[in-house]
């Protein structure tokens, strides 16, 4: 389902800037559409071969006991049933992932918005700071940064040393099942640059007239923030929120690198995708892993849908004003 | 994901020259969401295997895992083989263990297992059962591969359902690396092959009572906590006359056995006699183990890595047997790795010749040395042993001593699920030492998970 909508996405996006009302009926199909498809074909072939076909195969495998060696046997809903009713690790991985999403996403977005507002008020050097804060987003997804992170938070590492000095004895975060997940959270939050840049762009597009008018009417900074910045920025907040939620559910690399690939200690960093990988490639239960991938898709899809539903009550689109 | 973000913003930007701010619309967000979601699935099944090219003559593919020393020695032996078999080219590929396993699994799925392939003990049943490697009974009967100088019981480790599918390349044995200086100081006698788990517990308490400190000021304990190590548990079990697996689908022990093992270690840990939880979870190599960090006096390990301990910690480190139950030794000679032939090999005869050369040719034996533990061919092992010294001499002598002491026959290859079960063992032990489960709860959880793994 997702691929179909992605195919159309660019066209729709362009249409939203069309001066006509959005809900107008689609224009009649034009003649000579084929040149468009010729130009699209490299992408479309890729989408079919690399996305649609693997997705279909994955859906099929999720109903089998495929183990990489023997031909897959149809087992119906067994993988799904086992996952939902018999596997305590599955639910633990769901819990760990939810905890991560619920903690990391608001922290990251809050920090991104805060820094973006500081940068906006900066009169000089904004370009420099913007790049400086953005840099971790480029680096953060890499294996090497995750390894640096691991060294920082390990027993005998810098963080443990500093905390020891102020009397908090953690013995390193990486080896402590109660703290390990927060090390990953901090690594994610540190990469707040990407949403920050988007926030900054959004902030700069709010007309200064609005603030001026509000100031004349006697609104303080706090009031201005709540009554102008928040509503005017809400589409950007929404955009960042959806992106971060989807990405966070799929977090893999930092947990893989920091735990050495086993989601440890004691499964404390065993995120959903890491567990999926372990089931598929270490334990050779490809069918089970495929079933997990589909449930993740459905769950993230559902959460995204809920976000969209609720967004109607809090996201304000300036271009929908007259509707 | 950063790129996706930009793509979406970029799409709307060119049309915005008129001044409308490029604020993402609802649909733009939806589009990006869809792209983000689809990556959830495509990541899963995108690994692929490398294929080999064809040249004139015969090309054999040979893959193994191991460190640089082993790679250099293996390459050298192969050059010698090529020289003696004109027209045969051997293409090699190697990597570290974990990525090797994953790569091989993917190759097997695509029917591309190399002609000659190094396998772990745990892979035998999976690869043999999945018809990824071929039975070798024929080439053994016609003496293309000679097995007369190898131990019959040991050869059994490469069988599956009564047929020989792989041949061991080296035989390893578990042991116990300990600091003899600390043992002397605490007044503990040199561990003998018959020393018991009770002796071991007492020794650890004595060492802890010395009140020594590690370089970073931590409490110095008697040993690492072997509770997360499936090999240690197996030795413990076999000392009591049981096995890890009754057969390919059944465990050979009960919840009570595992509870007893974990409770025993749990008490010692709580008393401070063996390594603490935070040190156990980070012990992933010789350097990060308690003994390697000078936090403890001993470590459960294997013979092949033992020379690494003396290299790191000095000549005081010696190699002792794993403790017994009433003198009944549970350790056994285990294939450290095996050689098999890919079932779709186009040149099974030449592949068999290469295997025979690596296992039985004295010159190959000299080149390979003990890089894969003790060679299974007795004559070659004895020949190579003459040149050994130091730690390598010690592990060779250790193997001789253990053989004379008398060990039970080794079990057959563990079921395919053992790779996952082994990591479960470590993980559930971690839950226990961090107080997230009692020994009995942990044992029950492990048994449930292992049974589920064996059933599927």
From TrEMBL, chain A:
Which key words tag this protein in UniProt? Cell membrane, Membrane, Transmembrane, Transmembrane helix, Transport
Reply yes or no: does the keyword Cytoplasm apply.
no
Q: Where are the transmembrane segments?
A: 34-61, 98-119, 131-149, 179-203, 224-243, 286-308
UniProt-annotated location(s): Cell membrane
Q: Does Zinc-finger count among this protein's keywords?
A: no
Q: What is its main location?
A: membrane
Low complexity biased stretches: 1-14
Q: Which Pfam families match?
A: BPD_transp_1
Please state every residue range assigned to the domain named ABC transmembrane type-1.
Answer: 94-307
Q: Which InterPro entries match?
A: ABC_transporter_permease (IPR051393), MetI-like (IPR000515)
Q: State the membrane topology.
A: Multi-pass membrane protein
UniProt-annotated stretches for the region Disordered: 1-28
The organism's superkingdom is given as Bacteria
What family does this belong to? Belongs to the binding-protein-dependent transport system permease family.
Query: What is the protein name stated in its UniProt record?
Result: Sugar ABC transporter permease
Q: What species was this sequence derived from?
A: Streptomyces niphimycinicus
UniProtKB/TrEMBL annotation, chain B:
Q: Which InterPro entries match?
A: Bact_solute-bd_prot1, SBP
A Pfam family that the UniProt record links to this protein: SBP_bac_1
Chain positions covered by the region annotation Disordered: 1-25
- This protein's source sits in the domain of life called Bacteria
Name of the molecule in the record: ABC transporter substrate-binding protein
Q: Top-down, what is the taxonomic lineage of the species of origin? A: Bacteria, Bacillati, Actinomycetota, Actinomycetes, Kitasatosporales
């Amino acid at each position: 389902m997702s691929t179909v909508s992605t195919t159309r996405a660019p066209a729709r996006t362009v249409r939203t800037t069309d001066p006509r009302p959005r809900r107008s009926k689609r224009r009649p199909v034009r003649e000579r559409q084929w040149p468009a498809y010729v130009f699209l074909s490299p992408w479309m072939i890729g989408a079919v071969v690399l996305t649609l076909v693997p997705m279909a195969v994955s859906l099929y495998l999720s109903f089998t006991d495929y183990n990489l060696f023997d031909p897959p046997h149809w087992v119906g809903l067994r993988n799904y049933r086992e996952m939902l009713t018999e596997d305590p690790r599955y639910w633990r991985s769901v819990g760990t992932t939810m905890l991560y999403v619920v903690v990391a996403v608001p922290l990251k977005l809050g920090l991104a918005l805060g820094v973006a507002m500081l940068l906006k008020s900066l009169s000089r050097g904004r370009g420099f700071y913007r790049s400086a804060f953005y840099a971790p987003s480029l680096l953060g997804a890499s294996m090497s940064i995750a390894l640096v992170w691991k060294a920082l938070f390990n027993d005998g590492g810098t963080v443990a040393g500093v905390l020891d000095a102020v009397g908090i004895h953690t013995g390193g975060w990486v080896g402590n099942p109660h703290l390990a997940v927060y090390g990953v959270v901090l690594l994610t939050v540190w990469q707040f640059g990407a949403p920050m840049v988007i926030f900054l762009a959004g902030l700069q597009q709010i007309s200064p007239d609005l603030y001026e008018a509000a100031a004349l009417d006697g609104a303080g900074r706090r009031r201005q923030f709540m009554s102008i910045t928040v509503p005017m920025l809400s589409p950007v907040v929404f955009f960042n929120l959806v992106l971060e939620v989807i990405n966070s559910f799929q977090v893999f690399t930092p947990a893989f690198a920091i735990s050495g690939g086993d989601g440890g200690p004691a499964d404390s960093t065993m995120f959903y995708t890491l567990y999926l990988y372990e089931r598929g490639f270490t334990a050779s239960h490809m069918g089970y892993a495929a079933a997990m991938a589909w449930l993740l898709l459905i769950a993230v899809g559902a959460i995204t849908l809920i976000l969209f539903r609720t967004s109607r009550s809090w996201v304000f689109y300036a271009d929908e004003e007259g509707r | 994901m950063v790129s996706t973000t930009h793509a979406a913003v970029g799409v709307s930007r060119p049309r915005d020259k008129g001044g409308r701010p490029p604020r993402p619309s609802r649909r733009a967000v939806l589009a990006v969401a869809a792209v983000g979601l689809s990556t959830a699935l495509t990541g899963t099944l995108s690994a692929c295997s490398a294929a080999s090219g064809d040249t004139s003559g015969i090309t054999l593919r040979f893959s193994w895992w191991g460190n640089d020393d082993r790679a250099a020695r293996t390459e050298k032996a192969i050059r010698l083989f090529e020289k003696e078999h004109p027209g045969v080219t051997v293409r090699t590929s190697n990597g570290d263990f974990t990525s090797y396993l994953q790569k091989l699994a993917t190759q097997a799925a695509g029917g591309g297992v190399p002609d000659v392939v190094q396998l772990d003990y745990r892979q035998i049943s999976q690869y043999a059962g999945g018809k990824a490697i071929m039975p070798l009974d024929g080439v053994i009967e016609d003496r293309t591969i000679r097995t007369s100088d190898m131990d019959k019981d040991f050869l059994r480790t490469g069988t599956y359902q009564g047929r020989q599918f792989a041949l061991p390349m080296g035989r390893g044995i578990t042991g116990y690396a300990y600091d003899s200086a600390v043992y002397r100081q605490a007044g503990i006698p040199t561990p003998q092959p018959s020393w018991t788990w009770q002796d071991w517990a007492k020794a650890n308490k004595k060492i802890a009572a010395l009140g020594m400190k590690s370089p970073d000021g931590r409490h110095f304990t008697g040993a690492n906590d072997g509770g997360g190590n499936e090999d240690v548990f197996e030795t413990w079990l076999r000392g009591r006359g049981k096995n890890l697996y009754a057969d390919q689908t059944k465990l050979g022990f009960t919840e009570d056995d595992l509870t007893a093992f974990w409770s025993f270690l749990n008490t010692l840990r709580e008393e401070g006699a063996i390594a603490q939880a935070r040190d156990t979870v980070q012990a992933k190599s010789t350097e990060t183990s308690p003994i390697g960090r000078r936090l403890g006096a001993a470590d459960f390990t294997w013979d092949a890595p033992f020379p690494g301990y003396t290299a790191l910690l000095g000549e005081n480190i010696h190699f002792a047997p794993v403790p017994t139950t009433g003198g009944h030794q549970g350790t056994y000679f285990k294939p450290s790795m095996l050689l098999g032939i890919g079932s779709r090999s186009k040149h099974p005869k030449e592949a068999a010749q290469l295997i025979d050369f690596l296992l039985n040719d004295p010159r190959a034996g000299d080149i390979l040395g003990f890089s894969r533990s003790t060679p299974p061919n007795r004559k070659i092992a004895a020949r190579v042993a003459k040149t050994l010294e130091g730690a390598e001499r010690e592990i060779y002598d250790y193997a001789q001593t253990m053989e004379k002491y008398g060990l039970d026959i080794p079990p057959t290859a563990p079921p395919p699920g053992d790779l996952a079960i082994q990591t479960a063992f470590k993980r559930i032990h971690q839950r226990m030492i961090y107080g997230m489960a009692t020994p009995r709860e942990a044992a029950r959880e492990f048994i449930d998970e292992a049974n589920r793994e064996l059933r599927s």
